[in-house]
Design a protein that fits this description.
Blueprint: H1 2-34, H2 47-53, E1 58-63, H3 83-88, E2 91-99, H4 118-125, H5 136-153, E3 158-160, H6 164-175, E4 181-188, H7 198-205, E5 208-212, H8 235-247, E6 250-252, H9 258-267, E7 273-277, H10 291-299, E8 303-306, H11 310-313, H12 318-332, E9 337-339, H13 357-365, H14 370-388
Parallel strand pairs: 1-2, 2-4, 3-4, 4-5, 5-6, 7-8, 8-9
Helix pairs in contact: 2-13, 6-14, 12-13
């Protein structure tokens, strides 16, 4: 009798063990596989580049690190970003974007607010709060809470930036020798609004200070750069943009159709951000909007963040990223170019955040002057945020 019990008890225990392990093992395997670092063979960074890098205030416009089940107060061997590696890379400020919807297939031309998306699987397997499994607003708020929880757990390491005054406090603390980094909350697309303008206020109250309008789907606000409609801003989109500006939320058009960008430029009072991209003339990719559009954004005071992955820059090596930065500087001017890595955004890069000195070194080796390097590595973003964040 007891032996017969073993025939079903043992498999049952194994099944239960697998089910218990899934939320831990599967997200780690996915994270490791798609947020990879392909370093290749390379030597150490030169002493001159390292010393110059240490004098910079490094800032980056886009990382999706809050999407993954990592305690960012700890150092990891997977993915691209955590606070210890940010400090090692001399990072001052990172925009942490919250992803709430992503195509469940490689076809990025899907439209609408409904249908299957891959974030549902991540929300379930990573044991996010149950209400976030089907609620896009809750997905954004859950990721925001994670950043605030990190700041509460490690106040000497992270300061959440919600105002220009916060930014000045961060920089002063760093000038005083503190090993502290800043985190600013943004959205990856406005799917988290779920068609409700009042949600913008809720997100602002939760600390969001940058919102992108689209991601890989057309949505209620208008067309995506990767969608099927190529539409401009809808009436709802115009109302949403207006409310974001009233609150002091910076607007990111990195995945928006060119029609949406043009419509947005016509109605905004403040400059726009293209947080993670390349320039089409340098890298003729469907990921990149036209050079003419980039110039128009820059002419109205906007900021262009250059990515670290191959689809945006065609060569993801440090030298390739430096070449893409230099191409953007030539196109729009040194005052309008920044870093927009897309770290932890399901992309492969050649560095993680601890190795940003390799970008500095590559820029120096390419002949870029130090004033321009200082601007694109962070000062442009800091100046932009100081001018466009709520004062206090």
């Amino acid at each position: 009798m007891r032996k017969r019990h073993l025939f079903w008890i043992v498999p049952l225990v194994l099944v239960i063990g697998v089910l218990v392990a899934l939320p831990t093992v599967v997200p780690i395997l996915v994270d490791r596989a798609i947020n990879r670092v392909d370093r290749g063979e390379r030597g150490p960074v030169s002493e001159a580049a390292r010393r110059f890098h240490e004098t910079l205030n490094i800032a980056d416009l886009h990382a999706d690190s809050l999407l993954w089940n990592r305690d960012l107060t700890r150092r990891y061997s997977r993915g691209h970003v955590d606070f210890p590696r940010m400090i090692e890379g001399n990072m001052a400020l990172q925009v942490f974007t919250t992803v709430t919807k992503f195509p469940g297939s490689s076809d990025h031309a899907e439209t609408g607010e409904g249908g299957f998306d891959a974030i549902t699987l991540l929300a379930v397997t990573q044991l996010w709060p149950r209400r976030s499994w089907g609620d896009l607003t809750e997905r954004a708020l859950h990721q925001a809470r994670k950043l605030h929880d990190f700041a509460e757990a490690a106040p000497d390491t992270l300061l959440v930036i919600k105002s220009a005054a916060d930014l000045d406090t961060l920089l002063q603390r760093r000038d005083n020798g503190e090993a502290i980094v800043g985190g600013l909350l943004g959205t990856e697309g406005s799917h988290a609004l779920s068609g409700d303008l009042d949600t913008i206020d809720d997100l602002f109250d939760a600390g969001f200070r940058m919102m992108s309008l689209q991601h890989f789907f057309d949505n209620r606000l208008g067309g995506s750069l990767h969608g099927t409609s190529n539409a401009g801003l809808t009436e709802f989109g115009k109302q949403a943009v207006g409310r974001m500006e009233e609150l002091g939320i910076m607007i990111d058009v990195s995945h928006s159709s060119e029609a949406v960008v043009r419509d947005t430029l016509e109605i905004v009072q403040r400059p726009l951000v293209v947080s993670h991209t390349g320039t089409y003339g340098h890298c003729a990719s469907s990921r990149n909007a036209s050079d003419a559009m980039m110039v128009e954004v820059a002419q109205q005071g906007g900021l262009i963040g250059i990515g670290f992955w191959s689809q945006a820059v065609c060569d993801a090596s440090p030298r390739g990223v430096a070449a893409a930065i230099n191409a953007a500087v030539e196109l729009v001017g040194a005052d309008h170019v920044a870093l927009g890595s897309d770290f932890d955004g399901a992309v492969g890069t050649s560095i993680d955040v601890s190795e940003l000195d390799r970008i500095t070194e590559a820029l120096l080796e390419s002949g870029t002057d130090r004033s321009t390097i200082r601007k694109v590595m962070g000062q442009n973003q800091i100046d932009f945020f100081r001018a466009n964040l709520p004062p206090s």
